[in-house]
Amino acid sequence: MDYDSELSEDSLQSLFVWIDGIPLSRKKKNISRDFSDGLLVAEIIAHYFPRLVEIHNYVSASSINQKLNNWGTLNRKVLSKLHCTVPADIMRKIAECSPGIIEVFLLGLLRKIESRLMNNRQSTQGNTPESRPYYIARSSENDYAVKNPIPLAQLDLGSLDNQTRLILEEKEQALLASQETVQILQVKIRRLEHLLHLKDLRLQDMEQRLTRFDSVSSIQSSAQRR
């Protein structure tokens, strides 16, 4: 990731919409400060891949050292698995709340999450318990409430014949694929909806400016006639 790059307004707004759509332990007020200790980053990843993150490893922190401890653990145990590790100098900048850094990281994380969701749907590795993304999705008018089913591996299926077990496993894989597709589409829909809202606001602003310009022109024309 290029941490020296400056994100566009559309990219930032799309990022904020994505973050606001995830239930976090505290509301986003100042993104550089709120995400500086790594806790909310861990919560975001846990929202999509609960088996990948042990939230108790991360604590809300105000000291630089504790923030760096959180980020070190997150880097080693979680981000490395997403191929989204953070260099030591960038971790310190994030911990020190340097502006513009965490936004670049989060946008990169969003892309990694979307890529992993897509790969999980297409990969046979979805059979392993560690990589199964069971979701408890945010419920709203535009979202599907996805339950957290019990994996077949945790059930006693010894009394079933092989054919029945095979059918159940196929159904489970189809369910996982559907859940992952819903998650990906929900993220994309929220981003597109917000981009449309931004364009509407810009059109309204342009119309207001045009109205003010017409008013000023009319006043100037009247003054010149006098």
TrEMBL record:
Gene3D superfamilies xref list: Calponin-like domain (1.10.418.10)
All copies of domain Calponin-homology (CH), residue ranges: 9-114
Keyword Coiled coil appears in the UniProt entry: yes
Stored PROSITE patterns: CH
UniProt entry tagged with the keyword Coiled coil: yes
Keywords annotated in UniProt: Coiled coil
Pfam families reported for this sequence: CH_2
Coiled coil: 168-209
Protein name: Calponin-homology (CH) domain-containing protein
